[in-house]
Write a structure and sequence with these properties.
The chain has about 350 residues and is of the alpha/beta class. It folds into 2 domains: about 130 residues, 3-Layer(aba) Sandwich (Rossmann fold), CATH 3.40.50.720; about 190 residues, 2-Layer Sandwich (Dihydrodipicolinate Reductase, domain 2). The protein has 11 helices and 15 strands. The strands form 2 sheets. It has a 9-stranded mixed sheet with strand order 14-13-12-11-7-10-9-8-15. Strands 3-2-1-4-5-6 form a 6-stranded parallel sheet, with helices on both faces. Helix 6 crosses helix 9. It starts with a strand and ends in a 26-residue tail after the last strand. The relative contact order is 0.15.
Length: about 350
């Protein structure tokens, strides 16, 4: 069995391409990029692959059964929707989409048996895989709080790169989505409501019109509380922080390493499980995606999880923009805001609103 694949976007998508090239059950049919030279260079590394600059042409190419989408964030929904409507499986860089109406359209377009996955690659990190097992086994007791910080440490990519040029770019959706995903994936819970605030101190005075820092608080039916931040202006190296607090133990991953606490006593033992909080590479989830497409056992969370994750991030952006608490699932509650930017401030809103 083999899977015919098209790869769209050859920036980070080059990592996708390499993962498909290494896979024994994949054949790359088409590579696509808006830069024809980049597409041609990539095609030369894959015998038989055609180089294209039109994403829709790549999706519809004969022999393509699955599409790997690594285009700009704002294009993810359109490319994923076209893939689903063409009956293709879709592997999409995060975020899968960025608006509540896009969530609904992807849900409606997905056919039975079609695989949709988003490249939330921290799911492949050995420490987080083990932490998910520990939580499911009750080894940390009842989880009552999750803290996640996305420390980007690359402010220039917001103020000078394509992100800042997109009036709807959301630091929460573009960065904190990783931490929201881990919170939902590790605990197996979905939030009931979210509130959020944002600030623009670090990017103030630049061409970027929105917030560079967002902090969200999620409520869960179990009583668990989640606190997630997107910190694009941090004077740090790029890294992630995750803390999972249970009644019997606490798991921490930060720039000091990973560790498990099992006693409240300050002198109590702290365990280092010796597992990495990072995946092997940015294509680490692709083997599971291929297995799913070929009907084999796999560890993908499924489309319902992917869409619930986007809704949770959309709701945080809406709460930051409008104030107050936003209930989940959205179920049409944001219809009035579907045409509004989620990354920048609403018209007339004060700085930091």
């Amino acid at each position: 069995m083999s899977l015919g694949v098209a790869v769209i976007g050859l920036g980070v998508g080059a990592r996708h391409l390499e993962a498909y090239r290494r896979h024994a059950h994949c054949r790359v049919v088409a590579v696509c990029d808006h830069d024809p030279q980049r597409a041609a260079e990539a095609a030369r590394t894959v015998p038989g692959a055609v180089a294209l600059t039109d994403a829709l042409e790549a999706i519809r190419s004969p022999g393509v059964e699955a599409v790997s989408i690594a285009s700009y964030d704002a294009d993810h929904h359109g490319h994923a929707l076209a893939a689903l409507r063409a009956g293709r499986h879709a592997f999409v860089e995060k975020p899968l989409c960025t608006r509540p109406d896009e969530v609904a359209s992807l849900a409606a377009a997905a056919r039975p048996g079609t695989v949709v996955a988003s490249n939330l690659v921290l799911r492949a990190a050995p420490f987080f895989v083990e932490l998910r097992r520990m939580v499911a086994a009750g080894e940390l007791g009842d989880v009552y709080a999750v803290d996640g910080d996305y420390m980007y440490g690359r402010l220039h990519k917001l103020t000078e790169g394509w992100r800042g040029a997109d009036p709807e770019y959301s630091p929460f959706m573009g960065g904190a989505v990783h931490m929201v995903d881990l919170m939902l994936w590790i605990t197996g819970q979905r939030p009931q409501a979210v509130s959020a605030v944002g600030g623009d101190v670090c990017a103030r005075g630049s061409a970027y019109p929105g917030d560079d820092f967002v902090a969200a608080t999620y409520r869960f039916a179990s009583g668990m509380v989640g606190r997630i931040t997107a910190n694009f202006g941090s004077v740090t190296r790029h890294h992630h922080v995750l803390r999972v607090f249970g009644t019997r133990g606490t798991a921490i991953s930060d720039d000091a390493g990973v560790r498990i606490h099992t006693r409240r006593d300050p002198g109590g033992p702290v365990t280092d499980p010796g597992l990495s909080p990072l995946p092997a590479d940015k294509g680490a989830l692709i083997p599971e995606f291929v297995d799913a497409c070929l009907g084999r056992p796999n560890g993908l969370p499924g489309l319902a999880h992917e869409l619930a994750l986007v809704e949770a991030c959309c709701a945080a952006d809406a709460a930051r923009r409008d104030g107050g608490w936003v209930d989940l699932p959205l179920a049409g509650r944001l219809k009035s805001g579907m045409g509004m930017p989620i990354g920048g401030r609403a018209a007339g809103a004060p700085a930091g609103a």
